[in-house]
Amino acid sequence: MGAEADFEVNFTTKFIVKPTNPMVDHPHILSLSNLDLLSGRFPVSYFYFYPNEPHDLHAATDFSSIIESLNTSLASTLNSYYPFAGRIVPNQHTNEPEIMCDNSGVLVVEAHANIPLKKLNFYDLDQSLQSNKLASISPDFPFQVQVTLYTCGGVSITFTFDHALGDATSFGNFLLSWSEIARKKPVSCVPDHRRNLHLRARCPPSYHSSLDQSFVKCTMEEIMNIPTAKTLIKRLYYIEDSSIKHLQSLASRNGKKRTKIESVSAYIWKTMVTAIDTKSHGMCKMGWLVDGRSRMHKKENQINPMSNYIGNVLSLAFGEASVGDLKQGSISDVASIVGEAISKVTNEEHFLDLIDWIECHRPGLMLSKVVLGQGGPALVLSSGRKFPVAELDFGFGSPVLGTVCSTIERIGVAYMNQRSSAKGDGSWTVSSILWPELAAALESDTIFQPITTAHLNFRL
Fold this sequence. Notes:
The chain has 460 residues and is α+β, with helices and mostly antiparallel strands. It has helices spanning 34-39, 59-80, 125-129, 168-182, 195-198, 211-214, 220-224, 241-251, 260-272, 323-328, 331-343, 348-361, 436-443; strands at residues 9-17, 28-31, 43-50, 87-90, 97-101, 106-113, 143-149, 155-162, 215-218, 233-239, 283-291, 314-322, 365-368, 378-384, 401-405, 414-420, 428-434, 449-450. Pfam families: Transferase.
């Protein structure tokens, strides 16, 4: 499971890929929507790992072909996803970020690792990501790619996006379109870049007063210097389908069937209270990222007009409960608290209020108070069950693992991001940023298993 102590990555080539024939051929500004301003400017990195066939003895040649194919298909993909090839610049009057769509291009980095892929430490992400070995990030490019060759001929691809470009749904649509173009398949998503058409504030703007307690205006400096009371570590876990179904069975009582996310969240929340200082904190919070696309402009029996929207359409649902209630309550009891908290934001009125709240506090960036570290111990869970994993085949096979991890050093909450495993058998991988006591508590059971190559479909 562990990586070799001398794991090194040698960066060999850097080049810029530009759209071959962009839909918009002249530079223009794409203003961010109010919900873009809520998501901040965090870098988000997606990691995909592709083992080599054991009989393939031409890794170097194959790697050249892979790079060439990726560059060609990326240039074609950027034709319709042209903002990803732009630059993010401050507005001269408001200092708010905006996207300059000038076809500057995407930075692609070619690298070589000195170990076989099976020796990489998938569990301890701190070790694998140290010194930016798998995600070298340049502040000049809002989207960049690193392709790394391992001594076995296997490859990893890291995609790093500035959050201002969009959310997980946006990035998933982009990556899936790229893989479809690489395999000369029909493209399943025609991107919609009209950010202020769908998400404009009402006139006059109005919102529920509770939003003042949940969100706050902040600066980029405050985001980059979030106070962290605890050391946070990055880990990757594997959850078997049988464990998920077992938790769902425990959470579903009295005729109410709980979702898998609600059920696993209840287990996590109950585990959290065993790993915090209960003398200092009598309450404990948990949060969930909610995509508003299916909640906005919803009309019965009609295709959702925002299904292909590229940008941020996220809000945060938060639940708070006493340490005593979480300890004493059953999985079903806690799942009820989870479901109630999430239900408060899974409606159009909440998102309209949130857009209006941001409108009343512009210019500037906005963020959840809890994410900024204001409000005691908390954990945020993001579900990526629809994010493409096994589907991300660029013409040289499907990955054995696709996951996400933020490369930022400071975050005010513990954070988990769930993905379907590449096996397609209902199991999950969960990328986590946790305080050590919480990691130890989760690993004391058999549900959150530290991921190993045994959990992955390696062709070795």
